[in-house]
Amino acid sequence: MKRRLLAVLLTAGLVLSMTACGGKSEESASGSASEDTSAADAGGEADAGEADAADDAGGADAKDISIAVNLKTLNSEYWGNVKAGCDKAAEELGIEVTVNGPDAESEIAQQVTQIGDQLAQDVDAIIVAPCDTDAVSGALESASGEIPVFFIDQDVDFPGKTSFVGTSNVDAAKKGGQYVGEKIGKDAKVVIIYGQEGESTSNARTQGYKEGLAEFGIEPIAEMSGNNVSDTAKAAMEDLLTRFNNEIDAVLCMNDDTAIGALSACQDAGVADDITIIGFDGNQSAVELVAAGDLEATIAQQPSEMGYIAVMNAYKAINGETVEKEIPIDTIFITKDNAEEYLK
């Protein structure tokens, strides 16, 4: 990789210098011990000297470092916020960070192709939010043990993984199920609109919702895929309203786009005021609807911070520092009570 070539050239130059001058080399700054990082250490905002500290600890020149990022898609507010965090870290560090993603989260083959193309550019690290964990593991096989491999938002059981940066989807979604249980009680008629069939993030959030509901003796009366997008989620909600004769008390959604689609169906049916709708991600558009009283709540991830921390830690790994195997990003449960403050 580029940094190995740089090291060889530097070593050759040093040998020639010592031969000509008969001098002794100075001790490398990279000989100092490095400390593990955590989400708290990495922080949502960089310390003023973070980039300088990383330069002092590592051997690679920042201007020569290239990090590839491949997200599930760039065509959504949430993933756009993740990209913004990556871009912010790149600017602060003075490194090249290329962010890409397929046209939609369902475009698994496109993501695999993009990852292959990015690895072919001889990058120093790669950060991936996988559309499909098995497919992505295969695409990353050549990078295992060669460069730092980070997963963001969704973890993968990958032998060459350096670290995972993201939210516990089970724990976060559990808050939504608990909220419905506390608000409505054990007789609540609840439906879940999940994401792509078989997708691990969707499965984890569905599990969390069910665990939270189970604490109040509630079992969902139906589960249906919204495929992560508003239009499909709206169609799913229309079907559920027809099937249950509009007698639904709450809808727990895979993400905010799903919640907005479900809300639209409920508004068209004239039952929006009677149904508690909970989203997931904390997108600005959804939080504004929470503040207006149209959506009940959203479970806010911190996507910009997630992208920022992932790039910062990938940079540290490139420079030989140890990073935590898991770097958790907290979630915030947003209701009308704190929506305005969150928007600020």
From TrEMBL:
InterPro entries: Peripla_BP_I, SBP_2_dom. Residues 24-58 are annotated as: Disordered. Keywords: Signal. SUPFAM superfamilies: Periplasmic binding protein-like I. It is found in: Cell envelope. The keyword Signal applies. CDD domains: PBP1_ABC_sugar_binding-like (cd01536). Residues 67-321 form the Periplasmic binding protein domain. Residues 28-45 have a biased composition (Low complexity). Residues 1-20 form the signal peptide. The keyword Signal applies. Belongs to the bacterial solute-binding protein 2 family. PANTHER family: D-ALLOSE-BINDING PERIPLASMIC PROTEIN-RELATED (PTHR46847). This is Sugar ABC transporter substrate-binding protein. It comes from Ruminococcus gauvreauii.
